[in-house]
Request: fold
Amino acid sequence: MKAFFIERYGKQNGRIGEVPDPQVGAHDVLVRVHAASVNPLDSKIRTGAFKLILPYGLPLILGNDLAGVVVRTGAAVRHFKAGDEVYARPPEARIGTFAELIAVDEHALALKPANLGMTEAASMPLAALTAWQALVETAQLQKHQKVLIHAGSGGVGSLAIQLAKHLGAFVATTTSTANVEWVKGLGADVVIDYTQEDFTDAVSDFDVVLNSLGADVLAKSVKVLKPGGQLISLSGPPTAQFAREQGLPWVVRQVMRLLSSGIRRKVRNHGVRYAFLFMRANGTQLRNVTSLVERGVLKPVIDRCFPFQSTAQALQYVEQGRARGKVVVTMEEVIQHAR
Reply:
């Protein structure tokens, strides 16, 4: 089968080539990929930024989101059958959605929302699960609480705004001048143009901050939280607790403890909490997302689509950090050629 893979770490690495078809275990579902979205995570994996957290072997097929059709199932699979239209964020140890085929553990898989096409569906799993695990699972966000979502025009931010409003929260977000009105349309109550105003001057006494930006924004976010509030970061630094939960070696746990010592000390001094979130595959939660999509609560936001042959360009576009919503790689030409 054709796939986009890397043979070594580096920013410009990766190529399309022939690789063996995936092996299908007893609990696996073999899916023909119709579309796969591109995430900042893919770029970080490609450069080796996550080698300590995700020690992949090389060569490695990239890709962390998919929508497609079930080809066949393993002997122990009971909830999916050939012909089902599905979507997923595969388990982190078995990524590889930039490919014609992928074997996905059935517990990470869900039926595609009936009201979405393949391209739209492929844009949802990782970003929607991240928003769910941050706001519902970690923050346990309640009605009338206040949440600041940084980078509201991004893939995660655009869905997190929609989910937070559904939960009844008061939502503030940061974005650039060009996206202010667009982000307001997603439902944000307060939109801060970071090119014109410092968010610490605009909001205060918030219950939750969801950060996906750099260390400077993370540190400043502590200031806008009320006592007992929670700072959740998608961009790090990871903690020793996270390393333990991942089963990482003792040495790596100590590195994580050191890397996070500054922000942990800062939140303690301010009487708030800090959590690093590295989202995980979860088919049950994805079915909850499906329900919200089919009810019109969550709507996909797609910036651009690239053909599979232009996967490298899609990665480069995402790395610029200016995408409004998600970027998707489509496999239509590959599928037609295979037929």
